[in-house]
Amino acid sequence: MVQSHVQAGRVGLVRRSYNVARIGNYQAKVEAEEFRRLAELVERSGFFSLEDSYPSGIDAPEVDISITAGGQTKTIRDGWGSPTPVELWGLEMAIDGVVASLNDWTKSE
After folding, report:
1. CA dihedral sign, ordered 64, 28, 98, 18
2. Which of 25, 30, 40, 61 could cross-link to 35 by cystine, CB 3.0-4.6 Å?
3. % of residues, the chain, pLDDT over 90
4. Geometric angle at alpha carbon 59, from 56 and 62, rounded to 5°
5. Mean of the per-residue pLDDT values for the chain?
6. Are 26 and 13 in contact (CB under 8 A)?
7. Where exactly are the structural domains of the chain?
8. Residue 13 above 60 pLDDT?
9. Contact 107, 39 (CB under 8 A)
């Protein structure tokens, strides 16, 4: 299970899988411009209007994306191989790109 949470200029990452570099709960600071662009993608994707779950129907890894904006939090669970809308897929790829570029991860509870 991989969870990403973006809020107030920080990204949180929760990984519960054997094949990732960091297992557990971590946080890192996101640069202002990257955060602004992610926030714009969230808005343009209609994230808060998407379904809460896109199951794959098979035993496959899942990704949870949680976003907080304007006092509202939404989490979407996306099963790999599911018929995910391209808007959600694009947002996932953008978040993955930002997460991959961060080096100042700190372990959190």
Report:
1. negative
2. 30
3. 18
4. 60
5. 78
6. yes
7. 2-107
8. no
9. no
